[in-house]
Amino acid sequence: MDDTPRIPTTVRPAQDADIPAITRVYNQGIADRLATLETEPRDEDERRAWLLGRGERHPVLVAERGGEVVGWGCLNPFSPRPAYRFVADFSVYVGREARGGGVGGALLAALIAAAGRLGYHKLVLAAFPFNEAGMRLYARFGFREVGVYREQGMLDGRWVDTVVMELLLDGDGETGGRGDGK
Ligand SMILES: CC(C)(COP(=O)(O)OP(=O)(O)OC[C@H]1O[C@@H](n2cnc3c(N)ncnc32)[C@H](O)[C@@H]1OP(=O)(O)O)[C@@H](O)C(=O)NCCC(=O)NCCS
């Protein structure tokens, strides 16, 4: 068992003052080639417009440690078709300096709680199979692997697979997932 004391993490809704930190952390995630098929770095104006454009069903949350924003996550529309309104995709990004310390878990727990309050039935995501921290995080929260899209993206001249995962928020009979990371 790891007895290392964890630094308290606070998760709260994002605001305009968080834009520099959100942009910094996102650009690290893009550059690391572990998290996303996005390849172009973003600037603060782009992230500000993105934040302003979110509706109340698609919140952006930030994680703070010692007064610094070290990560962010959000609920994204899965599809504009009304039949999909109970499904949300999500994103979670932790700054390099803070990874492996429970921040991703705190953000995902808060996103799952927010999704429940907003009436979603399911969370889904697509991740790279070689994203070990992400795979462990999603497994801990009870996400079920739906399947693998083979050679789904071309990243720096190489094909990459993506793993599609889901979590039913009212209790996932197949995985027994509680969606609380316990
Ligand atoms: C993936 C990510 C969000 C996880 O957040 P985190 O704060 O680092 O994760 P946590 O500390 O909560 O730990 C998650 C699990 O991964 C493990 N882990 C952390 N870093 C790891 C690493 N480098 N390699 C392997 N496992 C790792 C932890 O031990 C933990 O395992 P457990 O749940 O079995 O105890 C974060 O690493 C990150 O932002 N990475 C870059 C962006 C990204 O990949 N986003 C997800 C896109 S799908």
TrEMBL record:
<keyword id="KW-0012">Acyltransferase</keyword>
<keyword id="KW-0808">Transferase</keyword>
<dbReference type="InterPro" id="IPR000182">
    <property type="entry name" value="GNAT_dom"/>
</dbReference>
<protein>
    <recommendedName>
        <fullName>N-acetyltransferase domain-containing protein</fullName>
    </recommendedName>
</protein>
<feature type="domain" description="N-acetyltransferase">
    <location>
        <begin position="9"/>
        <end position="170"/>
    </location>
</feature>
<dbReference type="InterPro" id="IPR016181">
    <property type="entry name" value="Acyl_CoA_acyltransferase"/>
</dbReference>
<dbReference type="GO" id="GO:0016747">
    <property type="term" value="F:acyltransferase activity, transferring groups other than amino-acyl groups"/>
</dbReference>
<dbReference type="Pfam" id="PF00583">
    <property type="entry name" value="Acetyltransf_1"/>
</dbReference>
